[in-house]
Write a structure and sequence with these properties.
The structure is a single chain. The chain has 3 domains: 331 residues, no CATH class; 110 residues, Immunoglobulins (Immunoglobulin-like, Sandwich), CATH 2.60.40; 42 residues. The termini are far apart. A hairpin with a 2-residue loop joins strand 4 and strand 5. Helix 10 packs across helix 11. The protein is built from 18 helices and 8 strands. It is of the alpha+beta class. The chain is globular and about 85 Å long.
C-alpha cells in the first residue's frame, strides 16, 4: 500500500464522550436483549442484536474514522460521513427493535420508576406518534438535509466543532424519525399501510436527487472553505464538489430504492392467513401500552417487581451509584479537550523552494502557554503530500531574542497523519514568531508565522457538562417525588370515594 493511503487510513480521531456513550448504549441493549431472550420472548432473534450493534458501530465509524478527520479538507469525505449518519446507522439501529431491550437493560429501578411510566405517558405517546408520522418525518429530514447544506450553515459547521456536532445530531435524529415508518421497529404501531412506504421512499429519493444535482451541475464552488484549504489528493474543489454530488446521487438513491423495491415485492406477494398471524395481529397494540406490567408476565422478573421495601432501597441505591458513575464519566469526557484537530484553522500558506507549506493552529490570538501547530508539506509543482519531509518548529519572542523554544514535529502527534504536529510553549504574552524549517533530501526551506500571544482569560471555564448532569438528576428526582405523591394521594382518596 502506498504511504499516502496508509496515512489516510490511520487518520482516526476518536471522540471520547461519544465513544463512551455508544459503548454504554450497547451494554444496556445487550443486557436487555439477553434477559428478554432468556424469558422466552420470540421477537428478538440474534440478527436483531447484530443489526443494532452494527448500527452503533457505523455511527461510531462516521464520527471517529478518517471520514471525520478529512471532512474539513475534502467535501467527498464529508458527504460520505453524512450518508452514513443518515442512511446506514439509523435503519440498522431500528432493525434491532431497540425500545424494549434498552428499557429492560436499564437497572430495574430506572425501568420501573422512569422509563416505563414515560413510555406510558399519554403526552409522550402523542408526541412520538406525531414525530414518526411519515409526512412529519419526511419534512423534518428534508428540512435538516437542505438547511445544513446551504452555504451559510455548512460553513458554520466547518468553522465550529460544536456546530459540527449539532449538524451531525440533526442529521442522525431526523433520519431515525424518517426510517421509523419504513422499518417499523417492534413494538411500534403502524400509522400507514405498508404499500404507502414505496411512494414515501421515492419522494425521499427525489429530495436526495435534487440536492445531489445541485452539487454535480453547479459551475462554482458552493462552500468557500474548500477553496482555501490545500488540496490533499490532487483534484480541484469544483471536481471534489461534483464527485461528492455523484456519490450522494448514486449511493443515496440505492439506499432509498432498494428498500422500496423490497417492500413492493413483499406487498405484491400473496400472503395466506395462518395460525401464526393471529397472535401477531392481536399483539399489534404492543407492550408499550403496559410496559410496567410486561415484566410481571416474565418469571425472571417477578421477584423484582413485588419486592419488599429493603429490596427497593437496594435497587434505588444501586441506580444512584450507576447513574453517578456513568454521568460523571460522560460529563468529564465531554469537558476535557479531545486530541482532534477540528478546532485548528489555516494560519499560513506559503511556497518556498520546492515546497508548499500550510500551517494550522488555534483560531485568533493564541493564549500564553502551550500551543499546538500542525504542518502540511507538499510538492510545490505537483501538490503531492511529502510524508518523508522533516519539519522543525521554533518560536522566538520579538522583545527577547533569548526566549526561544524549538521542537521537531511528527505525524504521531496529529490525528491527520498527513500533517506533522508539535507543541510550542509561547510564554509569556507578547509578539512571537514561529519558524518552520522544512528539509527533504538536499532541499530545504524556511517559513515564518508572526503571532500575537495574549494572556489567558482569568477564571475557570463554565462546567456546562456537569451542570447538565445536575439538571438531569434534578428532573429525575422531581419526577420520582411527584409520581409517588400522586400515587399516595390516590391511595388515600380511594376509600373515601368507595364509601360515597
Amino acid at each position: 500500500m502506498q504511504p499516502l493511503y496508509q496515512a489516510v487510513l490511520l487518520s482516526w480521531s476518536v471522540p471520547p464522550a461519544a465513544t463512551f456513550a455508544l459503548a454504554l448504549t450497547a451494554l444496556v441493549y445487550l443486557r436487555g436483549w439477553f434477559l428478554l431472550r432468556r424469558a422466552g420472548l420470540p421477537f428478538l432473534p440474534l440478527w436483531r442484536a447484530v443489526s443494532f450493534l452494527l448500527g452503533l458501530l457505523s455511527l461510531w465509524v462516521a464520527l471517529a474514522s478518517p471520514l471525520d478527520t478529512f471532512s474539513g479538507f475534502v467535501l467527498t469525505a464529508h458527504m460520505v460521513q453524512h450518508m452514513v449518519l443518515m442512511m446506514v446507522a439509523p435503519p440498522l439501529i431500528l432493525l434491532g427493535a431497540p425500545l424494549i431491550p434498552l428499557v429492560r437493560g436499564l437497572p430495574i429501578f430506572a425501568a420501573r420508576e422512569f422509563a416505563g411510566p414515560f413510555l406510558n405517558w399519554p403526552p409522550a405517546n402523542r408526541i412520538g406518534n406525531a414525530l414518526t408520522n411519515p409526512i412529519v418525518a419526511m419534512l423534518l429530514m428534508g428540512a435538516a438535509m437542505f438547511a445544513w447544506h446551504t452555504p451559510k450553515l455548512y460553513e458554520l459547521a466547518l468553522a465550529s466543532d460544536s456546530w459540527h456536532e449539532v449538524e451531525h445530531a440533526c442529521f442522525f435524529l431526523t433520519s431515525v424519525l424518517f426510517w421509523w415508518p419504513v422499518v417499523q421497529p417492534w413494538p411500534s404501531r403502524v400509522q400507514w399501510p405498508r404499500w404507502a412506504m414505496v411512494p414515501y421512499l421515492l419522494v425521499a429519493d427525489l429530495q436526495n436527487t435534487a440536492l445531489a444535482a445541485i452539487l454535480v451541475f453547479s459551475d462554482r464552488v458552493l462552500y468557500p472553505s474548500y477553496t482555501v484549504e490545500p488540496s490533499l489528493f490532487g483534484f480541484s474543489p469544483l471536481h471534489d464538489q461534483a464527485a461528492s454530488g455523484a456519490i450522494m446521487w448514486v449511493l443515496g438513491s440505492l439506499a432509498y430504492l432498494v428498500p422500496a423495491i423490497a417492500i413492493a415485492v413483499q406487498c405484491l406477494q400473496p400472503r395466506p392467513l395462518s395460525v401464526e398471524d393471529a397472535p401477531a395481529r392481536k399483539r399489534e397494540p404492543s407492550p408499550l401500552d403496559s410496559l410496567p406490567s410486561l415484566p410481571q408476565r416474565l418469571s425472571f422478573a417477578d421477584r423484582f417487581l413485588r419486592p419488599r421495601m429493603s429490596v427497593r432501597a437496594v435497587e434505588a441505591i444501586s441506580f444512584l451509584l450507576l447513574f453517578a458513575i456513568a454521568g460523571v464519566g460522560l460529563a468529564f469526557l465531554t469537558s476535557v479537550s479531545s486530541s482532534d484537530d477540528d478546532d485548528q484553522v489555516l494560519r499560513l500558506q506559503q511556497q518556498s523552494g520546492p515546497f508548499a507549506v500550510a500551517v494550522f493552529g488555534q483560531n485568533g490570538n493564541p493564549d500564553s502557554g502551550p500551543a499546538t501547530f500542525s504542518v502540511l508539506v507538499q510538492d510545490r509543482d505537483t501538490q503531492e503530500t511529502l510524508l518523508d519531509a522533516s519539519v522543525d518548529l521554533s518560536a522566538q519572542r520579538s522583545a527577547d531574542s533569548s526566549s526561544t523554544t524549538s521542537v521537531t514535529a511528527t505525524a504521531a502527534e496529529s490525528d491527520n497523519k498527513l500533517l506533522q504536529s508539535a507543541e510550542l510553549n509561547l510564554a509569556p504574552a507578547g509578539d512571537w514568531t514561529v519558524h518552520i524549517a522544512v528539509q527533504r533530501n538536499s532541499a530545504s526551506a524556511d517559513f515564518s508565522l508572526p503571532l500575537h500571544v495574549v494572556k489567558p482569560e482569568s477564571g475557570v471555564a463554565f462546567p456546562w457538562s456537569y451542570l447538565i448532569l445536575f439538571a438531569c438528576a434534578a428532573i429525575l428526582l422531581f419526577v420520582y417525588v411527584r409520581r409517588h405523591r400522586m400515587v399516595n394521594t390516590a391511595q388515600v382518596e380511594q376509600p373515601v370515594s368507595t364509601q360515597q
